[in-house]
Automatic annotation (TrEMBL):
Pfam families: MatE. This is MATE family efflux transporter. InterPro entries: MATE_fam, MATE_MepA_subfamily, MdtK-like. The chain crosses the membrane at residues 59-78, 98-123, 135-153, 165-188, 194-215, 236-257, 269-288, 316-335, 355-375, 387-411, 417-436. One of its GO terms (cellular component) is plasma membrane. It is a multi-pass membrane protein. One of its GO terms (molecular function) is xenobiotic transmembrane transporter activity. It comes from Candidatus Lachnoclostridium pullistercoris. It comes from the Bacteria. The keyword Transport applies. It is found in: Cell membrane. NCBIfam families: matE (TIGR00797). Keywords: Cell membrane, Membrane, Transmembrane, Transmembrane helix, Transport. PANTHER family: MULTIDRUG EXPORT PROTEIN MEPA (PTHR43823:SF3), SPORULATION PROTEIN YKVU (PTHR43823). The lineage of its organism: Bacteria, Bacillati, Bacillota, Clostridia, Lachnospirales.
Length: 444
């Protein structure tokens, strides 16, 4: 109740600082982790290895996405139960989430270990990339439970009075990943398998940090108490489904684009897209951090009917994300080639750098619209409108990108593949604007 009163009464600038800063910091570190992997693989192994890892990326996105469905829904359902004084119900929901997530992670781990080559082929790996892609998937599969439970236990900190827990776990993960990447890829020369192993072990290190308070019996939510409640778990999963669609859409987008770039420019085209996506994902994660940070402010004030505070919070988040996107758009236009050169050796990979630099200017248009879409999706999730949130996630990640890929490459060639991404964002933004206009009415 104390937290709810603070969210309803404290001046909004203070709330922004308190809730947005840790969320964005954790997202920044997540983004750095992906960029560090790319730098090590690109410089020590080469462009083809980067392309192979990007081909395998949808498998990683499915791990994250399935975990987020359970985690987001569970945090919402358990949080409401705790707020209503129903501690045992909260424990039951949390216990159910632990069991369901364990089953999901074991299934995904088995798929990665036993079917890595068929998965790589399904994701579009060419014969030249197949071995590296399947090796990455197989090695990462060993660590699926560590990845999934690091996310769940980290998010749980927000409900047990430890809002910095996820950030602490992420700091541990990125630090371990940098050290292990250097050792596995740079020193030992283990290639993509070494990069996947470094990522998995880094998540395991992060898990050891975030799990500690959840092992204590006195913690309101812990790994010991509770009963399995199928109905509560189904509701929680549906409530978190918009997050799952976001990650599933990201995985499908990478899959569609990889196939399109492979068809238009071969392995070099996939490598160029991989470099741009590393940088773009870094800023996109910052935008998602903003969305996550304002979520409790929006949801509490929605319940209290304080629409003026909701509009001010939403407006501030939209302005911030637009400015952030504008900065990256300018960077891609002015210094894109220099930025891309950080990932590859200009002497041996000049063709890929030139291709990526040309594509960056088109791809950069995405950032003038995707911040708006990300905040709007989070806005509807916070207000309990999962359907609208799913529409936005599917629009920007599946529907409009697929439509763009069907239309533009045949007309503009490789540039058409690049253009399908900003087309997807701007088309989704138009849909968002129409939905928001209808949602602005006050609840009855």
């Amino acid at each position: 109740m104390t937290q709810e009163n603070v969210l309803l009464t404290r001046p909004l600038p203070g709330l922004f600082f308190r809730y947005v800063t840790p969320a964005m910091a954790a997202m920044v570190l997540d983004g750095i982790q992906g960029i560090v992997d790319g730098i090590f693989i690109g410089n020590y192994v080469g462009a083809d290895a980067m392309a192979a890892v990007n081909i395998a990326n949808p498998y990683y996105q499915i791990i994250i996405g399935s975990s987020m469905v359970i985690c987001t829904g569970t945090m919402s359902a358990a949080g409401r139960a705790l707020g209503a004084g129903k501690e045992q119900k909260a424990k039951d929901i949390y216990h159910s989430a632990l069991l369901v997530l364990a089953v999901i992670s074991l299934l995904l781990m088995s798929a990665g270990l036993l079917c890595s080559r068929p998965i790589a082929v399904l994701l579009g790996a060419s014969p030249a990339l197949l071995e590296d892609s399947s090796s990455y998937i197989r090695t990462l599969g060993l660590f699926v439970p560590a990845i999934s439970f690091k996310i769940l236990f980290g998010f749980s900190g927000r409900l047990i009075g430890r809002p910095q827990l996820y950030l602490a776990g992420t700091v541990t993960t990125i630090s371990a990943n940098m050290i292990l990447d250097y050792a596995a890829v740079g020193v030992l020369g283990l290639g993509t398998a070494g990069a996947a192993g470094a990522t998995g072990l880094a998540y395991l290190a992060g898990l050891t940090v975030v799990i500690r308070p959840l092992l204590l019996k006195e913690t309101v939510l812990n790994v010991r108490g509770g009963r399995f409640r199928p109905r509560e778990m189904l509701y929680a999963a549906f409530n978190g489904s918009s997050e799952g669609v976001t990650y599933a859409a990201a995985a499908l987008t990478v899959f569609l684009l990889n196939r399109s770039f492979m068809a238009a420019a071969g392995e070099r085209g996939v490598a160029a897209f991989t470099i741009i996506s590393y940088v773009g994902n870094f800023v996109t994660l910052l935008m998602f951090g903003m969305s996550d940070g304002i979520s409790p402010i929006l949801s509490n004030n929605y319940g209290a009917g304080k629409w003026d505070r909701i509009r001010k919070t939403l407006r501030a988040a939209l302005i911030f994300n637009f400015l952030l996107g504008g900065v990256l758009f300018a960077v891609f236009w002015l210094w894109g080639r220099s930025l891309i050169s950080l990932f590859l050796d200009s002497g041996s990979d000049g063709e890929v750098i030139a291709m990526a630099a040309a594509g960056a200017r088109i791809y950069g248009l995405c950032f003038l619209a995707n911040g708006f879409n990300i905040v709007q999706s989070g806005y509807y999730t916070a207000l309990g409108d999962a359907v609208r949130s799913i529409v936005i996630a599917a629009g920007r990640g599946i529907v409009f990108v697929a439509l763009g890929l069907a239309l533009f490459p045949g007309i503009f060639g490789l540039n058409g593949v690049w253009f399908s991404l900003p087309f997807g964002e701007f088309a989704t933004a138009a849909v968002c604007w129409g939905m928001y206009g209808r949602k602005r009415r006050r609840p009855r």
